[in-house]
């Protein structure tokens, strides 16, 4: 019996149809890789499900966490820690699988993993306020609560991090403050990436890396189309570290960013937003509310007639229900899997090009690889060296995909084919599959 079947029996449900799984099955047919072999690529190696009794504000809160170690044929398991109310084992599995493909396409010596910690921080905050355990604002509560959660998480999995078997990084809901808690537990600078500036093994430019890569993917697409940045417009969903830095780099390049939305609302200016001024407002207020431009909803953002739409918040925001309404010519996937499999088919028919996540948001893991190698004794990088290396890797990824694109494959298909070929070949060479 295969590992995947045992896992599905253990958790009591079958893995739902996923975009990455469907794309891999299609890729295997194109590449003539056997169903048995691609099944071993699709399924994870190891899954940990852990209850975390976390003391927060004098009260023990029991949370569920999971770590999916998907594939380490090409190197140690690598992937972020997601802290959100709606994470589950199957989402974590798909994100770990995506990281395997992303690291393979970037051709770096890492595999794929992912962590998910399920907690509704806003509901927890409301309960703590009601019980008079906490009186400050939500942002301060979130900072304190996440520190307590990660300390407990690091205590349970210190052995996994200390052995560099799985090397975590920031993801949705976690950042450098959470990563330094893991470093504090292991005292090994190579056990975690995304550490704050000045902490042993930190990497200048790591914070901006994913957004920088999204920017570069868009800029290279403009060059291929023979268009100057000043001639192009963009709309962005999400103003976290990916969306915010992508917006800043686009703005500095001359691209008119005409709309941005996130959980707090949205802003719109057809003449182009002043991203520098907007970033200052957001840093001060923690929201778009009160800014001097027109309000904007996610629905209207997706309908904007922009050259580039950058969903940089969360997954599955463009689905079969709204794909037909997309107003942009090109979608740059700043988030992981923001476009569902069904929506991809609609967008292809509509003539909307998708620059896929496996390529577009690989800047973060490329930088993480530099940080990891630097921490185990490699060269020390400056911010510009980090950015230069990201650009080089993006150019190499595109060159690897180009022969397949010229044969008529979409960029998504070319990216998955390139990654699957590399993972499959390495698994054969390591004796993890039968020849």
Keywords:
single chain, 435 residues, alpha/beta, Rossmann fold, 2 domains, 7-stranded mixed beta sheet, 5-stranded mixed beta sheet, 12 strands, globular
Describe the structure.
The structure is a single chain. With 435 residues, the protein is an alpha/beta fold. The chain is 48% helix and 17% strand. The protein has a seven-stranded mixed β-sheet, with helices on both faces. Strands 1-2-4-3-5 form a five-stranded mixed β-sheet. Helix 9 links the parallel strand 6 (233-237) and strand 7 (256-262). The chain is globular and about 60 Å long.
CATH superfamily heading of the largest domain:
Leucine Dehydrogenase, chain A, domain 1
Give me the count of strands: 12
Helical fraction equals 40-55%
Individual helix count = 16
Low-pLDDT stretches: 1-5
N-to-C SSE series? HHHEEEHEHHEHHEHEEHEHEEHEHHHH
For the largest beta-sheet, the strand count, sense and barrel status come to: 7 strands, mixed
Residue share in β-strands: 15-25%
């Amino acid at each position: 019996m295969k590992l995947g079947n045992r896992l599905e029996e253990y958790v009591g449900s079958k893995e739902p149809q996923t975009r990455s799984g469907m794309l891999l099955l299609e890729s295997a047919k194109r590449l003539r890789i056997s169903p048995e072999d691609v099944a071993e690529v699709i399924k994870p190696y190891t899954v940990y499900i852990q209850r975390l009794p976390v003391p927060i504000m004098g009260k023990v809160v029991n949370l569920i966490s999971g770590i999916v170690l998907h594939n380490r044929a090409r190197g140690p398991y690598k992937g972020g820690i997601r802290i959100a109310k709606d994470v589950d084992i199957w989402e974590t599995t798909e994100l770990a699988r995506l990281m395997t493909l992303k690291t393979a396409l970037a051709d770096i010596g890492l595999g794929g993993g992912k962590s998910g910690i399920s907690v509704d921080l806003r509901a927890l905050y409301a309960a703590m306020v009601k019980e008079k355990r906490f009186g400050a604002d939500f942002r301060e509560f979130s900072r304190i609560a996440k520190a307590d959660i990660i300390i407990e998480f690091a205590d349970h999995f210190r052995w996994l991090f200390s052995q560099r078997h799985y090397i975590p990084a920031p993801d949705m809901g976690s950042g450098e403050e959470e990563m330094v808690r893991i470093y504090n537990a292991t005292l090994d600078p190579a056990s975690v990436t995304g550490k704050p500036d000045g902490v042993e093994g930190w990497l200048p430019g790591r914070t901006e890396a994913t957004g920088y890569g999204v920017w570069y993917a868009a800029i290279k697409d403009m060059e291929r189309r023979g268009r100057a940045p000043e001639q192009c417009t963009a709309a962005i969903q999400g103003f976290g570290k990916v969306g915010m830095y992508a917006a800043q780099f686009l703005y500095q390049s001359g691209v008119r960013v005409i709309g941005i939305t996130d959980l707090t609302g949205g802003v719109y200016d057809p003449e182009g937003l002043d991203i520098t001024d907007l970033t200052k407002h957001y840093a001060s207020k923690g929201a778009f509310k009160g800014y001097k431009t027109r309000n904007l909803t996610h629905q209207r953002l997706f309908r904007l007639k922009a050259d580039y739409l950058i969903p940089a918040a969360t997954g599955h925001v463009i689905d079969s229900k709204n794909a037909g309404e997309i107003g942009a010519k090109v979608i740059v996937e700043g988030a992981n899997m923001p476009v569902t499999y069904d929506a991809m088919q609609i967008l292809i028919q509509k003539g909307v090009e998708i620059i896929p996540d496996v390529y577009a948001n690989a800047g973060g893991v490329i930088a993480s690889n530099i940080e990891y190698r630097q921490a185990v004794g490699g060269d020390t990088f400056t911010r510009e060296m980090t950015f230069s290396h990201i650009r080089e890797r993006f150019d190499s990824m595109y060159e690897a995909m180009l022969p397949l694109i010229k044969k008529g494959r979409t960029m998504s298909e070319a990216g998955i084919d390139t990654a699957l070929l590399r993972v499959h070949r390495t698994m054969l060479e390591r004796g993890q599959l039968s020849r």
